[in-house]
Amino acid sequence: MENNNSNGDPSPVPRVAVVVFLLKGRSVLLGRRRSAVGNATFALPGGHLEFGESFEECAAREVKEETGLEIGKSEFLTVTNNVMLEQPKKCHYVTIFMRSVVGVDAEEEQVPQNLEPHKCDGWEWYEWDHLPHPLFGPLERMVKGGFNPFSS
Ligand code: 8DG
Ligand code: MG
What InterPro entries does the annotation carry (predicted)? Predict the structure, then answer.
């Protein structure tokens, strides 16, 4: 859905995004974006909070829509303010970061699918100590600041 924060709009507004640190063992699920915001950078699954949704509901919906994975519970980790005026599409997001842990047992193994290939090159598990580059700006700032989703 196009919104009122695209370039040229006379009254852009901040929007709320919910994104998920999906953790498996020592790895996190990342996908390389195909987007006017953070194109070709590695980011978490996630998207826009819809009217009436809880953070948890939004996290589960976005992960399911983008990867096919069914996450159980998720928990709030932190929130950051992301003003991205340098992007081809200027935007401002208040980004809610959630965490959900998936089982490492073979039985519970869930393989992510790239269900929105127009938005993402594909989903992969990356070890936290060997993250791919470049990371999406909001995520890059957290990592540089020492944020660790495994110990938060
Ligand atoms: P939707 O319309 O399906 O709800 O949204 P989407 O198309 O999946 O949106 P998105 O760009 O994936 O996520 C919305 C915004 O969330 C994105 O433009 C900027 C913000 N955002 C961050 N960090 C991250 C992140 O790590 N991953 C994702 N996907 N979005 C992030 O600030
Ligand atoms: Mg998304």
Answer: Nudix_hydrolase (IPR020476), NUDIX_hydrolase-like_dom_sf (IPR015797), NUDIX_hydrolase_CS (IPR020084), NUDIX_hydrolase_dom (IPR000086)
> Residue 5: its pLDDT value, please?
47
Residue 26, both tokens? 């020592």
34, 121 Cβ separation under 8 angstroms: yes
* pLDDT at residue 98 tops 90: yes
Q: Give me the residues near ligand 2 (ion), CB cutoff below 5 Å.
A: 47
Ligand 1: residues with CB < 6 A are: 17, 19, 35, 37, 43-44, 46-48, 82, 93, 95, 119, 136, 138-139
147 pLDDT band, cuts 50/70/90, is very high
Would you call 140 helix, strand, or coil by DSSP? Answer: helix
End-to-end alpha carbon distance in the chain: 33
Distance 69 CA to ligand 2 centre (A): 14
